[in-house]
Amino acid sequence: MSKVIKKVAIYPGYANMLKDQVFDLDSEVGRQLRGLPVLQRYIALRDLLAQNGIELHTYDMYSDPKEIDVWLMLEMKPSRYLFMARHLINPKKVIPIVIEPEIVLPWQWRYMRLWSRLHPIVLTWSPELVRSDKRFHRFYYAPFLFDVNKYEYYLAKPKKNLCMLMQSNKASRVPGELYSLRREIIRYYEKRGDNLFDLYGFGWNTPNTQHLGPSEPFYTPVHKGIADDKSETFAEYQFVFCIQNFVPAGDYESDVFMAMATGAVPIFLPPADVDELIPADAYINYSHFQNLDELTAYLQSIVGTEHYAAYRRRGWEYLNSEKFRPFTVQQFAEDIHRSIQLAR
Fold first, then answer.
1. pLDDT of 197
2. Which of 36, 48, 251 is nearest to 146 (CA)?
3. 152 pLDDT above the threshold of 60
4. Mean pLDDT of the region 14-30
5. Please, are residues 286 and 261 in contact by the beta-carbon 8 Å criterion?
6. What's the pLDDT tens digit per position in 271-318?
7. Does the pLDDT of residue 56 top 60, yes or no?
8. Contact 115, 77 (CB under 8 A)
9. Among residues of the chain, what percentage have pLDDT more than 70?
10. Which pLDDT belongs to residue 2?
11. What Pfam families would the database entry show (predicted)?
12. N or C: which end of the chain has fewer CB atoms below 10 A?
């Protein structure tokens, strides 16, 4: 007879998400996220589990680890296994959730075939891993929740500039990283000198980049600081560069969806399986242009035209269609709930 799951704990990976703050949009971490749609996915998961008679809290809210039936552990590092050993947690009760790609957490990927054997299920966005081993279960990351009622407001916002990029100054030595491409884009528009592009994010124009991995200081006059609210800022531009950390199949970040939801047109360098998930006419594919001169000329040529309006319209239709279902917070919650049931 399979065990009844009553209590699930989440190990969120960040101290400021403990004490159930990961479920509270008004918490300190909720405010620090500046409009990033992160906590909504965990709120949706908590609510779905509650509907099925299962408690979900951050692990520190339980007085005794022994009362926890299943652990959800975000990202696997040596420190996670030290934590499990200190608290005598059986790895068979732990479902790892792999979110970051190899360039962000190389240890997790380098030793995945070893540590994954300790667990009954590993949740991953990678279709290759799912095909290779039945222990791996697919979930679609970048779950995104948007306010349908704010779309017209976003459309009407005055535009500050042609295009923008909002990312932190990061670096990686792992082949395939796209941090260097972000820097190339920044330098290109800086050298043009015609003020078509703005940059937002942490770690630019400062010597303090230690917390961003192997990144080095990067100074540029196109940096406009830290946005107070990501959605509000996206809505102030005609186009948004959506250059992810890395683009293996299945790895999606939410910027492309946020651009569509705020009336901006995403310039997206997509993973190889994009045609299965996102319509090609809902974004501008960065890889279809020989260089940034050609891309910029194209952007300038379509602003204010029916062609530009069609990109906006198609993106909005996609977000409100069944095809977008894999990237909803509801699907995220259902995928994890299903894995919890399978782990019994």
1. 98
2. 36
3. yes
4. 94
5. no
6. 999 999 999 999 999 999 999 999 999 999 999 999 999 999 999 999
7. yes
8. no
9. 99
10. 60
11. Glyco_transf_10
12. N
User: 148-325 has which CATH code?
Assistant: 3.40.50.11660
Boundaries of every domain in the chain = 7-144+328-342, 148-325
**Residue in the block written with tokens 């349908």:** 148
Task: Give the separation between CA 284 and CA 296, rounded to whole angstroms.
Answer: 11
- The two tokens of residue 171 are 């670096």
Average pLDDT, the chain: 95
SS3 per residue for 322-341: HHHHHHCHHHHHHHHHHHHH
Residue 1 has pLDDT above 70, yes or no: no
User: Taking the model in full, what pTM does it have?
Assistant: 0.94
DSSP tag of 22: G
Own/partner contacts of 311-317, CB < 8 Å, gap of 24 or more, are: 311/265, 311/281, 311/282, 311/283, 311/284, 312/155, 312/260, 312/263, 312/265, 314/279, 314/281, 314/282, 315/259, 315/260, 315/265, 315/266, 315/282, 315/283, 316/151, 316/260, 316/261, 317/282
Residue-by-residue DSSP string for 191-204: HH-S--EEEE-TTS
The amino acid occupying position 306 is E
> Among the CATH numbers 1.10.357, 3.40.1350, 3.40.720, 3.40.50, which is that of 7-144+328-342?
3.40.50
Identical topology for domains 7-144+328-342 and 148-325: yes
Of 169, 178, 180, give the one whose Cα is nearest residue 217. 169
pLDDT at 336: 97
**CA distances to 3, 22, 38 from 26, in Å:** 35, 10, 13
Res. 3: pLDDT tops 90: no
DSSP secondary structure of 45-104: HHHHHHHTT-EEEEGGGSS-GGG-SEEEEES--HHHHHHHHHTT--GGGEEEE--S-TTT
